[in-house]
Amino acid sequence: MAKRCFDVLLAGLGLLVLSPLLLALAAWIKFDSPGPVFYRQVRVGRGGRPFRIHKLRTMADAPAGAGPEITVGADRRITRAGRVLRHYKLDELVQLIDVLKGDMSLVGPRPEVPRYVALYPADVRDRVLSVRPGITDPASLEYRDEAAVLAAAADPEAEYVNVVMPAKLALAVRYVEQASLATDLRLIGRTLRLVFLP
Fold first, then answer.
1. Secondary structure (3-state) at 129
2. Whole domain around residue 18: which residue ranges?
3. 66, 124, 136, 147: which could join 191 in a potential S-S bond, CB 3.0 to 4.6 Å?
4. What's the pLDDT tens digit per position in 32-48?
């Protein structure tokens, strides 16, 4: 209950403070390329319940399901504005909306698409999905340059499934087992430092 109150308070405050920036980013996205401001994608949330995550659109508008579900290196689908948004993780700021809705938390295992969740070992899946997914977590900080890592692999999809995803899941399980308000505050602090002082 304390975590949920903490999430709602900070998410609401964050959206209020960031609203001028978000409006400016929305205008930039519309000016830079045709398509909607938001990108919505189905992710798996707490208890295995699917939800549609919010992101600021960073790629050329395309039908749902078009292209791979992982981003590799300098993906040609990424727009000019999208490169900046992704570099500074600004595209994920609107996930504060998902926090207010109750689909996500500020800190928690990053939500994955159903295709990859289906590959989780059963015991790991149960633990990782026992909490709300988050905007940030240890795995997202550790693999901040995931696209570059995958670009260096001969088979990016296999690298993600066999190497990156298991490592991220191990970090997610450790977070779930050790989570506390103090841990969340430290992770939020580390995230802000990496965003503003990369």
1. coil
2. 2-196
3. 136
4. 999 999 999 999 999 99
